[in-house]
Amino acid sequence: MVENLRLVRTSSAVIWNTLDCLENSLLDQVKQQCQVPIFTVGPMHKFAPQLSTSLLKEDYSCIPWLDKQAEKSVIYVSLGSLACISQHELAEMAWGLTKSKLPFLWVVRPGLESLPDGFKEGVGERGRIVQWAPQKEILAHKAVAGFWSHCGWNSTVESIAEGVPLICRPNFADQKVTARYVTHVWKVGMQLEEELEREQVAAAVRRLMVEKEGMEMRKRAVELKARVEIGTRKGGSSFNDLDKLIKTIRSF
């Protein structure tokens, strides 16, 4: 990918949905190797908050449910628009969330297998299940304290921008690299690597949400959020790059 980027000759610039504070050393390397200017203008949703990139209809009925939950009590679960999981893993996720005894908002999109019998009745009002959700609004909600994610780049940046730590369950491509950043570089999350089992799911959710390890991750996530906010303010790295990008476009 870096080699392809270096050989770009028909473009006047490359726009990246990232920030200097997230990938500073590697961005410096790429800028030295690339033959055209690079503009890091992320998180893009902070500059265009009304822009929706959702491929499915977002269900806003979950927001009133979130409003009723205690502050920093809910884990949001969404594995993205492409990832597929087996019926066994779906069932283990369901029963693991039940065993955690914590409130959860779970996106189970159309196309996934059905949830196990008796699951919804056993959870009751402690859990909310939707087919798709307004993710940016959910991550910014005061009730949300954790995000179980596939670690797609957009989802990861949206979570970081709101100071929400992650449980990582990557599937393919860049998701595994991004998960490594979350767990080993920024240290704002943990990764589930083995085949899912309900006890493991329940333990991971509780580690992130209520145990000391998760509290430390949340503290680092809040600190990283502050750095992101600095980058998007006037004078910040992303703000300045966006200004430079506009000037470049106007110069054509």
What attributes characterize this protein structure?
single chain; about 250 residues; alpha/beta; Rossmann fold; 2 domains; 6-stranded parallel beta sheet; two-stranded parallel sheet; about 10% strand; transferase; UDP-glucosyltransferase activity
Distance between the termini: 27 Å
Shape: elongated
What's the count of strands?
8
Could you name the CATH topology of the largest domain? Rossmann fold
Low-confidence stretches: none
User: Multimeric state of these chains?
Assistant: single chain
- What strand line-up does the widest sheet have? 5-4-3-6-7-8
The biggest beta sheet reads: 6 strands, parallel
Pfam family, one: UDPGT
Family: Belongs to the UDP-glycosyltransferase family.
GO molecular function: UDP-glucosyltransferase activity
InterPro entries: UDP_glucos_trans
Question: What's the layout of helices and strands?
Answer:
Blueprint: H1 2-6, E1 14-16, H2 20-33, E2 38-40, H3 44-47, H4 62-67, E3 74-78, H5 87-100, E4 104-107, H6 119-123, E5 127-130, H7 135-139, E6 144-149, H8 153-161, E7 166-168, H9 174-185, E8 189-191, H10 198-209, H11 212-232, H12 237-250
Parallel strand pairs: 1-2, 3-4, 3-6, 4-5, 6-7, 7-8
GO molecular function: UDP-glucosyltransferase activity
Keywords: Transferase
Family: Belongs to the UDP-glycosyltransferase family.
